[in-house]
Amino acid sequence: MNENLQKLAEALGIIVSFSDAGLKRQDYAADEKVVRFLIKAFGYAADTDAEISDSIKRLEKRRWQTVLQPMYVCRQNNIIIDIAAADLSAISLRVQDSAGNNHDLNYEYCCNAVSNGRLYKEDLRITTPLDIGYYDLTAIVGTKEYKTRLAVAPEQCYKALPDEKKLWGFALQLYSVKSNRNWGVGDFTDLKNFVKLCQKSGADIIGLNPLNILSHDYPEEASPYASISRQYLNPIYIDIESVPEFMPDDMLPFENRIKELRASELIRYTDVYTLKIQMLEKCFSRFLSGKDITRRKAYEQFCRNNGESLQCLAVFQTLYEQQTQTIWGGWPAWPKEYRTPTSSGIRRFAEQNKERIEFFKFLQFEAARQLAGVKDETDARGLRIGLYTDLAVGVGRDSAENWSNPGLFVKDAGTGAPPDAFFPGGQKWGLGTFLPQELKERQYRPFIDILRANMQNAGALRIDHVMSLMRLYVIPDACDSGTYIYYNFEDMLNIVALESRLNKCMIVGESIGNVPPGFIETIQSRGIYALSVLWAERWDFGAGDFKAPEQYSQNAFTSVGTHDMAPLKMWWFGYDIALNFSVGIIKNAIGRDAAYHQREADRGRLLAVLDRAGVWPADKPRSGDYLFGEKYPEGIEEAVERFMSQTSSPVFLAQLEDILHVETRQNLPGTDRDKHPNWRHKLPVNLEDLANDSAYIRCVAAIRKER
Predict the structure, then answer these.
(1) Backbone angles phi, psi at 39, to 5 degrees
(2) What is the mean pLDDT of residues 90-116?
(3) Taking a C-beta distance cutoff of 8 angstroms, is the pair 523, 466 a contact?
(4) What is the pLDDT of residues 312-344, one digit of tens each?
(5) Of the candidates 487, 392, 403, which has an alpha carbon nearest to the alpha carbon of residue 430?
(6) Other beta carbons within 10 Å of 175
(7) Where are the beta strands (DSSP E) in 40-118?
(8) Cβ 157 vs Cβ 461: under 8 Å
(9) C-alpha angle 537/540/544, rounded to 5°?
């Protein structure tokens, strides 16, 4: 790679070499084709040496072309802005806060001006105290006014954990909940009932999968991490029988079908979703003709509050529903007039399809109402944290979020990850990725809106792949490999901290995978909790002994595993190894046998650390080494739950899959449903029966001995 190409790439935040996080750490040089692709995606030419030179010059001029940056995101104790102008001797500053009040600002020059021809640029430190929040900033330079946005962030994210007590709760995949009353998939009423069970069991937090809206037209595309909008909810979670316009007679013709869906071993997404939409269409028709003025006003207020983003989602869904009848390839294959949300064709379409657009808005209104009811239940029951929601790292590329924001996402590329200890072949997620500079040009509003939407009913928010605040691994569609692009890490951290405080929502960063040196320490210094899992908390880069409970971080939430990892019983017997071999993730019998030998050693390490912690139940002590082929160790799930409850971490999340001896995994990354039924497994015990289930009772008792 020539020197100028490397210089241009690095100036744009495109990495030309990196290391993975595999057990045998390797260094990589980014493919030159990947680098040139990303430079072009960033808006610069790099096909020839002359183009590269011109792009470097253009990039160097960029900051000098505006007096102010599009936005300044600063910590409250160090508010610095820079101004570029021909004359910096006569500057005055004022801000307008969210209430419309204006404030003149004092400042001091804090570095020598640098020049570029006749222009000068200098940093100004604002000395007038400002509360945390967002401000419209005006700079008067000479006789001209220039405007920008200022975000003033706290040093720390919101924290609400009691010092005197370590808390615990459950990690719950809501779709997987079985109950005697739902229609074949867990819903918001199930979640409300689970809140009641948590309160009785002493749990203070419920960690959820992302609840964001998925494809209306292809319900089988069920990954909660590939939504069409991270601002809105999946209507499949609506409890139809709790919709005010529902009438019991509506379901009489479908009672047998509902029973079948409820009894099905795997979730039948198309059948469940189609039936629910059919019922919701009836409810919507009654809503339109009904006389409930209070509900109508609440709906209208909901639409006003969500404004253009809700309108775009509803138009997208209506348009997609029509176009998919004849056109394959998603919205990029639509007629040109429909590919841009602000086109005259879209305006005509919206006018002609008002009622269907209103229906899709109604779905969001009702879903939001029911989820807010769950939040009310957590408050009424006194759960100290309540809901712990999950923000996906990206969005589906054939999505409303992508369609609604032309130019915001990297085109013809998707996110992924290089190899790490858990996924030695790397991962290609194919999710949409924000362009860093474009995100700042838009004053980070898309990112802020997503954070707010997911914090709305939450006491804590999990940011999936939190390293994305710093960098994301991007793979062009035409390439097998990718490289990292960098974001403004300080800006992103400041916005997260600010929204955390404004919404009184704690932040947890999922940080399993390729973590840059010093990254964990940096996010923890800002009050972001890390996420620790038993299977990763081991010495020798995850290959050695398991850490003792007291060696876990006090600045992390912890669990046994995640939805992407094997539950305890599956892990113990190596069923995950057999699965990986059957689908080709493990390439040959030699690799499979090596994995079995490694698992045998790891089982011994787990037994040893449980022994040292003294966590085996008194009536089910360890009775052997449990070699492969022998029975599942009685009491091991209690021992593991108690072990994790002993950790120094302030919050422990138990997984029902571990407690209830589940032998399948919810998701096998890198596979689609033709190889593994991802996101379709139900829990083996009905929600109504959990409180009387012996494994549940014993594990809760084991946890409460330590928490």
Answers:
(1) -60, -45
(2) 91
(3) yes
(4) 999 999 999 999 999 999 999 999 999 999 999
(5) 392
(6) 25
(7) 71-75, 80-85, 91-96, 102-105, 107-109, 114-116
(8) no
(9) 70
